[in-house]
Amino acid sequence: MLGWNLKGPDLPAVDVALRLIEQLTDYGRTIANDLRAQCLKIPADSDARLSAQATLGEASRRLHLPPPYRTPQAAGHRAQNIARLVNALLRAAGEVSGEQARTRHHHQQQHAITPS
Asked: Model-level pTM?
């Protein structure tokens, strides 16, 4: 989808693009829900959480838009935009996961160092 040339003559079929939009939107909502839950497990001031929250804000706006006009260009643009958003959500989920691992490791080190 991201490689589609929406200014050229070979536009994707509207029905194909609309089906992909629906599938990616559902997937994006699932990722966003999981990401929201994962954000609660890391420090509120961490860069990963702040970045994820910005991406989640964008997702909350774009994953609930009505279907685009039934033209190849409109459907193609929406499909590409949702694909970019899903990529951003996946990146944010990876960063939050990494922050969770660092936080967990840091807590384990603190408990190991604490004198008895």
From this structure: 0.85
